[in-house]
Specification:
Blueprint: E1 4-16, E2 22-36, H1 40-48, E3 53-60, E4 69-72, E5 75-85, E6 88-95
Antiparallel strand pairs: 1-2, 1-4, 2-3, 3-6, 4-5, 5-6
Length: 99
């Protein structure tokens, strides 16, 4: 079974408006990856920190620029942990609440 996906990485930046309020702006770009399941060990380690992992996505490391939000199949996720392995990086995703 092929687990290849196209998903979005979203970066946030803040600008200051005319009255000094910080306003969030987002930039989204599509990248390729492989969607995988969360292992039992990862689930347990994340649960100890109060996290509820959803997916692990592996992608080429040079495509990752430190984004903290990913959108997979129309759903937003927080990237709570990364692990670089040679020329790939594993992104560990948790459902983003309120997005």
């Amino acid at each position: 079974m092929d687990n290849s996906i196209i998903f979005s990485l979203i970066s946030e930046a803040f600008i200051i408006d005319d009255i000094g309020q910080r306003i969030a702006t987002e930039t989204s770009r599509e990248v390729y990856g492989q969607k995988g399941a969360i292992t039992r060990a990862e689930w347990n380690a994340a649960a100890q920190q109060g996290l509820k992992p959803s997916y692990e996505v592996t992608m080429f490391a040079y495509d990752y620029e430190g984004e903290e939000i990913a959108e997979v199949d129309g759903e937003r996720y927080t990237i709570y942990r990364t692990y670089k392995r040679n020329d790939t990086v594993e992104l560990y995703l948790e459902k983003k609440v309120g997005a």
